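TOKENISED FOLD:
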Amino acid sequence: METKILNSIEKIEKKTLPDFAKLSLALLFIVVVFLWSYASHGNLPNNTFLIIGAVFGAYMAMNIGANDVANNVGPAVGSKALTLTGAIFIAAIFESLGAFIAGGDVVKTIKDGIINPDLIKNPEIFIWAMTAALLSAALWLNFATSIGAPVSTTHSIVGGVMGSGIAAAGFAIVSWDTVGKIVASWVVSPLLGGIIAAGFLYFIKKQIIYKENMIEASKKFVPILISVMTWTFSTYIILKGLKHLVDLNFFVASVIAFFITVGVYLLVKPLIAKSSNKLANTRASVNSLFNIPLVFAAALLSFAHGANDVANAIGPLAAINDAIVNVEIASKVSIPFWVMAVGAFGIIIGLTLYGPKLIKTVGSEITELDQMRAYSIAMAAAFTVIVASQLGLPVSSTHIAVGGVFGVGFLREFLDNNEKRFLQETRKRFKRHKRELDLMQEELNRLEIIKDKSKTHYVKIVELYKKIDDKENLVKQERKDVKDAKSTKYVKRDAIKKIIAAWIITVPAAAILSAAIFFMIEGFMASI
């Protein structure tokens, strides 16, 4: 979405919902979680840390909603395929559906095996470590959101667990191989996302935008592109979003997705052909054909995020609950419904109250997006996860999505000469149609002067008026295309520096913060 429009949305939002009101609503949610956890677990021994953990879990979930969810809907909002309100509504529904329906009932206590819990013998110390990890990750996400930097929730949790684990049992507790894979993902995730997004956008430009008759090219290739999206997202949802409900391998998932894709192609092809017949031969018209696919992409990405990342993010809270209830440390624990509810509702509240800031960053502050570019980013988000999971590469969905935004922006810079060629061709069409319009106007003036007022004469004048109206609309659109093509909308370097810096320091910053919080808890508990 254009920056001016997003700024105006933020101004309206601030008028209707001031910062104090947002803070009040966020605190109200935390108070509700506190009261419920206290009332329902008041009879447990050592329940203080469970109540504290529930409060920190609620705070963490709201920060996930404010930061991480923007990656799923930001491109659709930035391209105007979705309004900000519509994006928040869709994300809220599908994030919660993903968490409750496909979130699973078991989660690893220690995300990605980052530390060995067997080295922490005392359950109390383990509870302190998980509490510190939860709070440090939430604080880091809060800080990143405040500066407009989309960062990885998973990496924040990993850093928090690693820092408190080292503070509790020393450096030997850390699985440094896993840490190496996480560091590798800082490069792998955005690189793969950028390359795949740029590849899809280049195909669209080459096969549709640079053609003389864009509408005819759209009739041929847009159904194919939507079908590719259908296969990718169907496979993605089966493998990632529904993995807790049904465990299928890649081959079976891809075959099921293929049959879904065939049905979608047969349905979409005549609809695209019918819609295209009503469109002018412009880039804006081609863009409009991607609106509905982008809405579905935002919904499906949100569902998959709710099914996967919500459970991982509230893992420390589930671990605290299990350690207090069972008085032991387990490598895998069940997630009670109330813990999942804290995560799901917290994400919705955080997204609604504070999500627009990061949606704006992803949607417009890195590079300007239209529907074709947003489609390419959505494809990169799903396709990269599928490819990486089959190759065993560690990736971050946040880094993939933002890398996709970088990719489409840098491709536009690389194809600058092609953009100039498009500008030249658009100018030629504009001048030709302008000359034709002038000739029509001259013919109309001549007919109106002629004294012959026969029916045939009037019919000619009416037809000419209609042709002039149609031609004027075409000329107006081509004038807009020329103006749009002139403006440079590439990647903003300041945004790149800020985001990459935040990515690099996420794990160490969360780890240092978590270790400090652990020592504070340990010192406080020793003094009482």
Summary: The first helix runs from residue 3 to 16.
